[in-house]
Amino acid sequence: MGIKSLGEINKMKQAGQLLASCHREISKRIVPGITTWEIDQFVENYLEQHGATPEQKGYLGYPYATCASINHEVCHGFPRKEALQNGDIVTIDMVVNVDGWLADSAWSYPVGEVSEEADRLLQLTKESLYKGIEQAQIGNRIGDISHAIQSFAESNGLSVVRPFIGHGIGKRMHEPPEVPHYGTPHTGPLITEGMVFTIEPMLNLGKHHVRVLGDGWTAVTVDESLSAQYEHTIAITKDGPIILTEQ
Predict the structure, then answer these.
(1) Residue 1 pLDDT > 70
(2) pTM (2 decimals)?
């Protein structure tokens, strides 16, 4: 399961803190008229200035430092040169490499003034992430995280994307365990001290079904309903989960 020592977790925390600071800078820049291409260029430069690299760039041929998914795009959207519009929502997802150790975090942002339903989607998706983190305790199972997110989302009339899930992380972007955001409590791998993994629920206003576009990367909701995502990298300690990417 890729158990990490305290020293290794601290190295990942350095990557996580840089990633969080990058998201804080992004939040100041998300306004109508900016492009996700400009955000991507900012991220690449910001990481370089801080001695880090964007782990996504080149991963399985992915060409950008960030994923930028707009409105009904669920994840893995390409940065582009079309301006964001007032009322859009956009998710910026990135993996940061500092001295070979990784951290991963996605955040959804409102662009200008968004609709009440879009704002509600953002708030509830973020809350679902923290409902999952609450269950990331030694002795629980991964299914307890999954169930907490699914039950919260569906009780609020939202659906949970199935194909894209959380994952272990360390020196590689994807390690065991897999962390679904739907499922049955008291099932799945046992959560133990030293695990480090992401929790990254993607919730939709409409149905949970998604499809991947012809670029081979961008996933969208089949019914074109809005989708949001919030993701943290967390470490399991005897004192509870530590959020390595806390903003």
Answers:
(1) no
(2) 0.97
235 and 196 in contact (C-beta within 8 Å)? yes
Structural domain spans, the chain: 6-243
Q: What is the pLDDT of residues 86-141, one digit of tens each?
A: 999 999 999 999 999 999 999 999 999 999 999 999 999 999 999 999 999 999 99
Tell me the DSSP string of 183-233. Answer: --TT-SSBP-TT-EEEE--EEESS-S-EEE-TTSS-EEETT---EEE--EE
Distance of alpha carbon 30 from alpha carbon 201, whole angstroms: 21
Residue keyed to tokens 């989607």: 121
- Six token digits for residue 70: 């707009």
> What CA–CA distance (Å, rounded) separates 113 from 124?
17
Closest CA to 199 of 155, 138, 243: 243
**CATH assignment of 6-243?**
3.90.230.10
| Each residue's pLDDT tens digit, 8-34 | 999 999 999 999 999 999 999 999 999
Q: How far is CA 133 from CA 73, 233, 245, in A?
A: 24, 10, 13
Nearest to residue 66, comparing CAs of 32, 40, 103? 40
